[in-house]
Amino acid sequence: MLEKVNGFVIKTNDYGETHKIVTIFSKKVGKFSLLAKGAKKPKSRMAAVTQPFIYGEYFVYLNSGLSTLQQGEVIQSLRAIREDIVKTAYAAYVSELLDKLLDQQSPDIHIYEEFEQTMHWITEKEDPAIPIMMLEMKLYEKGGFAPTVDRCANCGQKRSPYAFSIKEGGLLCNQCRYLDETAVSLPDSVTRLLYVFSAVNLDQVGSISVKDENKKLLRELLNSYYDAYGGFYLKSRKFLSQIDLLS
Which of 42, 79, 164, 203 has its CA 20 to 30 A from that of 151? Predict the structure, then answer.
């Protein structure tokens, strides 16, 4: 059955000499993969609509496995991403993380809306580091391995100051700090940011001002936490670290 689905291209792979397998993330269907026949041909009508990070309208024969693209139209090109290596790197990172952590054809409106807003932030603004961390925290929750950031992960008490423990899976209060000698002490401002990242939607945030040293600390914590619990190698993160954006 032919269905109309709007969504973002989050991954493309060549298939044979002229075709592509394209992964779309949509509000209606969730993440799904489709065969775009002839999309590698420069003059193909499928070429433009299967570019990375395009937001398009797709007419698709949906299957539980590989679907088939009948035709498509570009709704928003998000060209600014593809024309800027830094924006490309960030968009590739959130797209790969999303692809790794979401099941096929399992819609999640909340994650979709957060991803959509993050992609537009990357397109229109200069520094997407904070929106990306906000999306990461929500994806960690979706993946079932989010850190505890609203109370002590061990005793459940809400009493600052806290340290962040990779081993214990989140915050530790002073009384429980003995459980992990390697836990990282956090300023109260960083503890609050971790909670905001996990609980607040991007559309509720106008702008967030975070000191560079706190931004760096948060980035290191999330990287180490993902390495301990995420389970998937992220090729795009390596590229980001090479250009010192996600090191």
Answer: 203
What are the 10-residue block averages of pLDDT along the chain, 247 residues in total?
A: 95 94 97 95 90 96 93 95 93 96 95 97 90 95 96 96 98 97 96 95 82 93 95 89 67
Q: Distance between CA atoms of 171 and 162, rounded to whole angstroms? A: 6
Residue 246: the pLDDT is 59
Instruction: Tally Cβ neighbours within 10 Å of residue 131.
Output: 23
Amino acid at 113: E
- Count of CB atoms within 10 A of residue 70's CB? 16
User: pTM score > 0.85 for this model?
Assistant: yes
